[in-house]
Amino acid sequence: MQIYKVFLRQFNKLLLGCLLLCFVAQICWLVLVYHQRQLGLDSYFRERSREASSRYDSSRKRSLNRMLKLSSNTYNDGLLDETMIKTSQRENATLLMLVRNWELPGALRSMRSLEDRFNKDFHYDWTFLNDVQFDSGFIEATTAMASGKTQYAVIPAEDWDRPSWVNETLFEEALQLMEEKNILYGGSKSYRNMCRFNSGFFFRQKILDQYDYYFRVEPDVEYFCDFPYDPFKVMRLNNKKYGFTITMYEYEDTIPSLWDAVEEYLEDTEYQDVDMENNAYGFVSKFDFFGKSFAVMDSNSDYNLCHFWTNFEIGDLNFFRSERYIKFFEHLDSKGGFYYERWGDAPVHSIAVSLLLNKDEVIHFDELGYKHMPFGTCPSAYYMKLQERCLCDSNHPDNIDLNVISCLRRWWKDGSGKYFLKHDS
Question: Cα separation of 277 and 295, whole Å?
């Protein structure tokens, strides 16, 4: 009897184990069936999504460009069916080049490019500045290349030369130190004169008194695309004071004390000339990360080193002539940083624009293809590039727009944002 009870107890345990094993197996089978069904649904919807997203690839030419569309009004793929209307009506503006006689070949290349792409339709004046007299060969060649009037002026010595209050001993020591550090143009005296002139004196030249706008042009630059509008007209109609194509980080070794001078200016003026709620202060002061890639900038100040590349800039001369800009420049100039360090006009203009203007008064000319060695910018919308007859590759490594050293995404975030429709033109 005892043996029977033991046998029955063991049999019940075995039966219970078998039932539990069958239950677990059934659960696993149900999970497997559900998972396979889910995979089938995922595969189905993934395939349907791929078909929908690529349905119009052949007509939209997506396979020819891997980048995002970065240019305004480029989500309209019917651009080739539109007629570009150009008018010969001109704004009160000039094309401006600071250039030496020996730079004539590079000046002519830039002129030829801009004339072909833009000025042949408008015939804007060309204004040339130099710290010495232009020779007859330079004048003859540039006059022949221009479609508009050409004019030439010599910069007064007081606007160009190193001021007498600069400590020559400290200046020479700074040159030697920057040369030893292999800082770009660190040992150049004339480069410092140029940066100071472009920061605070170019707009004071009498030959420019008659104009409201300028388009800065440098030797050996290239314009990749036909201009789809007159940028001067865009500036006036949209109340823009400053326009750029490329923005990037500055070399901090050239401006170690610049931001200290800016902060001192703000404290001395008690922020009277700035509107911190509406300006683009964040563009030059924020360090937060964003996007899939970013540059880790080792800045020793609260300046994030972002600046507009001023070899291309279109500006309102009346802004630079204003009392607030001159006050800003003169404060910086008094610190001697143009000579004791190597402050460039690019960070000076950029910080001034970011502080003194409302962010909506600054425009990114994202439809204008442009290159100044070693970087360029090329519109990325296929049909727009066809319409503007662009000769550039949006996917080329030299295209800086989304490069890690570009500040363009910073401008989208902390400047006036990203526009997807054209401005009035």
Answer: 27
CA distance 221 to 215: 13
How far does the chain reach from its first CA to its final CA, in angstroms?
106
Rounded to whole angstroms, how far apart are CA atoms 238 and 85?
Answer: 18
Q: Which of 356, 193, 370 is nearest to 281 (CA)?
A: 356
Phi-psi region of 145 (alpha: psi -120 to 50; beta: other; left: phi over 0): alpha
Spot the catalytic one: 115, 222, 250, 313.
313
Q: Active site includes 158? A: no
Q: Along the 425 residues of the chain, how does pLDDT read in single tens digits?
A: 666 665 566 666 676 767 777 777 777 777 676 766 766 666 776 677 667 666 666 655 555 555 555 555 454 555 555 555 566 689 999 999 999 999 999 999 999 999 999 999 999 999 999 999 999 999 999 999 999 999 999 999 999 999 999 999 999 999 999 999 999 899 999 999 999 999 999 999 999 999 999 999 999 999 999 999 999 999 999 999 999 999 999 999 999 999 999 999 999 999 999 999 999 999 999 988 776 666 666 778 899 999 999 999 999 999 999 999 999 999 999 999 999 999 999 999 999 999 999 999 999 999 999 999 999 999 888 888 899 999 999 888 889 888 888 999 999 999 988 776 666 66
Question: Helices (DSSP H) in 238-343: which residue ranges?
Answer: 258-269, 281-285, 317-321, 323-333, 337-340
Burial pattern 186-220, b for ≥16 Cβ within 10 A else e, equals: bbeeeebbbbbbbbbbbbbbebbeebbbbbbbbbb
State the SS3 of 88-112. Answer: CCCCCEEEEEECCHHHHHHHHHHHH
3-state secondary structure 23-62: HHHHHHHHHHHHHHHHHHHHHHHHHHHHHHHHCCHHHHCH
